[in-house]
From TrEMBL, chain A:
Organism of provenance: Microthlaspi erraticum
Function noted in UniProt: Functions as a two-component phosphorelay mediators between cytokinin sensor histidine kinases and response regulators (B-type ARRs). Plays an important role in propagating cytokinin signal transduction.
UniProt-recorded name of the protein: Histidine-containing phosphotransfer protein
Gene Ontology, cellular component aspect: cytosol; nucleus
UniProt cross-references to SUPFAM superfamilies, sorted A to Z: Histidine-containing phosphotransfer domain, HPT domain
PANTHER family referenced in this protein's UniProt entry, alphabetically: HISTIDINE-CONTAINING PHOSPHOTRANSFER PROTEIN-RELATED (PTHR28242:SF26), PHOSPHORELAY INTERMEDIATE PROTEIN YPD1 (PTHR28242)
Main location: cytoplasm
Entry's free-text remark on domains: Histidine-containing phosphotransfer domain (HPt) contains an active histidine that mediates the phosphotransfer.
Automatic annotation (TrEMBL), chain B:
GO terms under cellular component: cytoplasm; plasma membrane
Location within or outside the cell: Cytoplasm
Region Disordered, residue ranges: 739-781
Top-level taxon of origin: Eukaryota
Name of the protein: histidine kinase
SUPFAM superfamilies: ATPase domain of HSP90 chaperone/DNA topoisomerase II/histidine kinase, CheY-like, Homodimeric domain of signal transducing histidine kinase
GO molecular function, one term: histidine phosphotransfer kinase activity
Residues where 4-aspartylphosphate is found: D831
Record EC number: 2.7.13.3
Length: 156, 930
């Protein structure tokens, strides 16, 4: 039993580190984790589910705005991008945030091609992140089910 | 007889040539020729029997007769043979003759042909053509030799005893054989003759063909010569043209032939070519040269000339062949190529140089970026330190502590100022600095600057402001920058002036000369841009150029130091730096960056020991006085409407230290609620913020406490203990002045507004800590988070929770204002970029409320307020603390559009860059809520 826990913990640690190393997450995610305590045991999950809801909504908004034939309202797209940038920055979704920065530049330059490309990338990126984080939460759950505690992962 | 016979024989032998003439005339020589063949048989029939017998006379005579007969016959035969021989010889001679004639003819022809070919050239081709013929000639001479050999072999040998019948017979036989052989030879010769005739005939045909070929070749050559893009000519040894191909079209043949180059045309290059040809002729060596002609005939052309000497058969020079090709284009191209190559090389060099520069620039940029970042990083904690020190200074301290604290605060302020300068510099250099176009009153600005300067004045100087009447009451420009420039120049002036006066003079001038050149500059912002900014506001306004002199009676600047005066980190001299301190950044920022950024110019004139005058000229838009847009500057907001009439017309201010009776500001004593609240705001602002720049623009219109603030005692401390006379005196004693005591009292009496203010404040709050305690019975400070992103809200909220602070949330500027209306907060965390009403505008409106005590500006802005009733007014009146400056901390995404400068400019106190972290929040809360 202990061996299983240890193995799961190891796996969890490695997985989390890999997420940081591959640039999916940054320190802000660590900040988020710090905020999770007895008072709010599911804080990270809550924030993240909110974040992914936002992603769906905002990406939907951007897609609709960019789908307009004729004139595209770049300010509308930009507003959504800004929102997404803020959100991703707050949860530490590094790659999404980085893409948002580029996206915003394209938006300001009114570069349609660039915007569409960024939109697609953001869509892929947040979905990837979602899967990865789900995997991570599953691991956490498994650890808890196995009777262990989720280890604190020191990134540095 | 015998002798006779011998002689005869010999005669016959030797004189054989004589015979043919006699015999040759005979018509029947053909017969004779045939006869010997028959005679041979007759000779054979004659059998001579030699018997030694006694001669019978009869018989002897008979014998004699027959002998005679025989000998005559023999003679005849001999004669006949000789004749035949002669005949053959003759025939042969004839043949020889005709052959040699033919040969001569052939030779002649050959010579002719050779000569013909020689005429054109002695080239190899000609030799080839004549090869056959020379073979033929060689073979004919060979035949000649053979013939002589044949003759040599002709010898007649006779074995028999001479002059016997046998002998003759034998001889005859031999001769006959010889004859036969000779005839045979003749026949063969004839055959050969025929043959050679035939070959001659067959040779004649190729000659025809060759001639034709030659003609074709000649035609071809001619074609080439006439169509080749080259000039060809032949000149004799006097360099006169004998013939020329492809001459210049306007010249006729007779213009050229028989003349020299020099005679034909003149101009540059002609002589050179002539010399060159001469040289070739003399040296006898063919050579090439490029000669550029510059003649009237065909303009400027370059020819590549090839000249070779021509020799006759004797090897004497008889002239030159000359060939010229026009290479003007090639030469031009070649020169171009050379130039291009040179350019390329230069460009490459420049490129490498540029790369180096780019590298250096990049490095510099990185260093600058780092400097800016570092400065920024330093500023935040430092402002905390200074702020805390200022708060500390409001507590009860003994004199020593106070002095130490004052040093601490002034040092801190100095460092802050320096950091602000550095930040400004890096901002302007990176082109991020934006200019604002706001309305302001130049007179007030000047007044405020002077007042501020007077406040910290530690010398006995007169500060004066002089504004020409034609300066508009309100103009549009970047008041913050202009203020900074003025403050900088004034503080410089004060620094280097020990007695006399320092002043500012404003006047309107016509458009200066440099504007046109300035437009071409690559400055990040030219006046045009400022103008276009304003045009966006929709007000068509006229530009006015205002010249501002900042003069002093100080130490002056030596002429040689002036050029480096405006350079960064440079001061007039190292001595000055030591003596007066400072970073040397101020003027650089003023000139190169601020003034020129706004499309103006900063100049200086100075005389050592007499003073300096810094002059800057800037364009402004003239504002229409009654137009109150939201961009209106705080200075115009500050002064109450009732004072405008007074303020705007006055053009002269004077501030003198220590003698308060002489303090003759145009403004009368200011009274009223507004002023009171204003001053309170200001004091808290200084406490909490501590930026020198903020200090300068947050200062009220009149604050006597400033102008009389003396030496070591700061303004805050003065007003902290207004009642404690003993302390007050202590400060005054620090100064060298004696009048200050009186003055201080005078102020307090003569300006009831000020004293009443102090009295009013004092019971409420002796220290800021007490203020907080008194205003808030509950220990927890109230914090308002203004943020539109729900995830950010969630995260921030959670963080604040962990830090132990409950927070209220507003999701945009309007909600924030409504929340502020409803209750009091101790801190506002404000997102910058928000829908409906963004953080910057909201902050401005909140500040305007703090200053004016009403939300009019917000209502004007279109903010729909919850309770515009008297309730709020009451609220405000009840709680004095509500009017104290509310700390507003911006939360920026740290992008260019959300710069910290902009936050400060809009009245925010500090900022946290996103994403918000626990650490950042903790620091912020510690700074503002302790």
């Amino acid at each position: 039993m202990d061996a299983l826990v240890a193995q799961l913990q190891m796996q969890f640690r490695d997985y989390t580190i890999s997420l940081y190393q591959q640039g999916f997450l940054d320190d802000q995610f660590t900040e988020l984790k710090k905020l999770q305590d007895e008072g709010s045991p599911d804080f990270v999950a809550e924030v993240l589910s909110l974040f992914f809801e936002d992603c769906v909504k905002l990406i939907g908004n951007m897609a609709r705005a960019l789908d307009q034939t004729g004139t595209v309202d770049y300010s509308q797209v930009g507003a959504s991008v800004h929102q997404l940038k803020g959100s991703s920055s707050s949860v530490g979704a590094k790659r999404v945030k980085g893409l948002c920065v580029t996206f915003k530049e394209y938006c300001e330059a009114k570069n349609y091609e660039g915007c569409v490309r960024c939109l697609q990338q953001v869509d892929i990126e947040y979905k990837t992140l979602k899967t990865k984080l789900q995997d991570m939460f599953n691991l956490e759950k498994q650890i808890i089910q196995a009777g262990g505690i989720v280890p604190q992962v020191d990134i540095n | 007889m015998v002798c006779e016979m011998e002689i005869e024989d010999m005669d016959v032998e030797v004189l054989s040539s004589m015979w043919p003439d006699d015999v040759g005339t005979e018509t029947d020589k053909q017969f004779n020729v045939e006869k010997p063949a028959g005679d041979q048989d007759t000779l054979k029939e004659v059998t001579i029997t030699e018997k030694p017998a006694i001669a019978d006379l009869k018989r002897l005579s008979e014998l004699m007769d027959s002998t005679h007969q025989g000998s005559s016959q023999l003679t005849n035969l001999v004669k006949q043979w000789e004749y035949m021989q002669d005949h053959a010889v003759m025939l042969l001679r004839d043949e020889l003759k005709s052959l040699s004639r033919q040969r001569e003819e052939a030779e002649a022809k050959e010579l002719e042909i050779i000569e013909e070919h020689n005429f054109e050239s002695n080239g190899h081709e000609n030799v080839l053509v004549l090869d056959d013929k020379s073979d033929f000639l060689r073979s004919s001479s060979f035949r000649e030799r053979k013939r002589s050999q044949v003759f040599d072999s002709e010898k007649i040998e006779v074995d028999e005893v001479y002059d016997t019948v046998g002998y003759w017979k034998q001889k005859a036989l031999r001769l006959e054989k010889l004859l036969e052989a000779s005839r045979e030879r003749e026949r063969r010769l004839i055959e050969k003759l025929n043959e050679s005739l035939k070959t001659m005939e067959s040779h004649a045909a190729p000659v025809e063909e060759l001639t034709q070929n030659l003609r074709r070749a000649e035609g071809f050559l001619h074609f080439i010569l006439q169509n080749a893009p080259i000039v060809m000519g032949h000149q004799d040894k006097d360099l006169r043209y004998l013939f020329i191909y492809n001459k210049f079209p306007s010249l006729r043949e007779q213009d050229i032939l028989g003349k020299t180059d020099v005679e034909i045309f003149d101009g540059a290059g002609v002589k050179e070519s002539q010399e060159f040809k001469k040289e070739v002729l003399e040296k006898g060596m063919a050579s090439k040269r490029e000669i550029t002609f510059e003649t009237e005939l065909f303009g400027s052309k370059t020819f590549l000339i090839y000249v070779e000497p021509v020799y006759n058969k004797l090897g004497e020079k008889i002239g030159i062949n000359y060939m010229g090709m026009e290479v003007t284009d090639q030469v031009r191209k070649r020169e171009k190529m050379g130039k291009l190559r040179e350019h390329n090389a230069v460009r490459n060099a420049m490129e490498t140089e540029l790369n180096k520069t780019i590298h250096i620039t990049e490095e510099t940029m990185r260093a600058k970026q780092m400097l800016a970042t570092m400065s920024h990083e330093i500023r935040s904690p430092l402002s905390g330190v200074v702020g805390m020190a200022e708060i500390l200074s409001t507590t009860r301290l003994d004199q020593e502590q106070r002095q130490l604290l004052n040093v601490m605060i002034s040092s801190g302020d100095l460092v802050l100022q320096l950091i602000n300068d550095i930040l400004d510099l890096s901002k302007v250099e990176s082109g991020v600095m934006k200019l604002e176009a706001t309305k302001f009153r130049p007179r007030e600005v000047v007044k405020h600057v002077l007042q501020t300067a007077a406040a910290s004045l530690k010398k006995s100087l007169t500060l004066e402001g002089n504004i020409a009447d034609d300066v508009p009451i309100e103009v549009v420009g970047d008041v913050l920058r202009i203020r900074q420039i003025l403050t900088n120049l004034i503080s410089n002036a004060i620094k280097f002036t020990h007695k006399g006066k320092v002043g500012i003079k404003l006047e309107v001038i016509s458009e200066p000369f440099f504007t046109s050149e300035n437009m071409n500059d690559n400055k990040p912002t030219t006046p045009k841009q400022i103008l276009s900014n304003e045009e966006q506001n929709g007000d068509p306004e006229t530009t006015v150029w205002i010249c501002c002199d900042v003069y002093d009676t100080g130490i002056g600047i030596p002429e040689n130091a002036i050029p480096c005066l405006f350079k960064k980190y440079m001061q007039a001299s190292a001595d000055h730096a030591r003596k007066y301190g400072g970073t040397g950044l101020g003027l650089a920022i003023c000139k190169q960056l601020k003034v020129e950024l706004m499309g103006g110019r900063l100049t200086v004139t100075s005389r050592v020991n007499e003073g300096s005058t810094f002059t800057f000229i800037l364009p402004y838009k003239v504002a229409t006085p009654n137009d109150h847009s939201d961009d209106q500057d705080e200075f115009s907001d500050m002064s109450d409407h009732q004072h405008i009439a007074e303020d705007t017309t006055h053009g002269y201010f004077q501030f003198q230290p220590l003698l308060r009776s002489l303090y003759s500001s145009s403004e009368g004593p200011v009274t009223g609620q507004n002023f009171l609240t204003h001053n309170v705001t200001q004091s808290s602002c200084i406490k909490l913020n501590g930026f020198a720049s903020d200090l300068s623009h947050a200062l009220p219109s009149t604050n006597i406490a400033q102008s009389e603030a003396i030496s070591s005692c700061s303004f805050e401390s003065a007003h902290k203990y207004p009642n404690g006379e003993s302390l007050y005196k202590e400060y005054e004693s620090c100064s060298s002045s004696q009048a200050s005591n009186e003055g201080g009292a005078l102020v307090m009496e003569s300006e009831p507004a000020v004293s009443s203010r102090r009295q009013e404040i004092d019971p409420h709050e002796t220290t800021s800590e007490r203020c907080e305690e008194s205003s808030k019975p509950d220990s927890k400070p109230k914090i308002l988070l203004v943020e539109d992103n729900r995830i950010n809200i969630m995260v921030s909220q959670s963080m604040m929770k962990q830090l132990g602070y409950p927070i209220d949330i507003a999701t945009n500027g309007v909600e924030a204002i409504r929340a502020l209306q409803r209750s009091n907060y101790d801190l506002v965390l404000m997102d910058v970029c928000m829908p409906v009403l963004d953080g910057l505008k909201a902050t401005r409106l909140i500040r305007s409320y703090e200053e004016s005590g009403n939300w009019e500006a917000a209502i004007e802005e279109g903010v729909d307020l919850d309770t515009p009733s008297s309730e709020t007014l009451q609220n405000r009146e009840v709680c004095v603390c509500s009017t104290k400056r509310l700390p507003i901390v911006a939360m920026t995404a740290n992008t260019l559009s959300e710069s910290s400068e902009e936050c400060y400019a809009n009245g925010m106190d500090s900022f946290i860059s996103k994403p918000v972290t626990l650490q950042k929040l903790r620091e912020c809360l510690e700074q503002y809520l302790c």
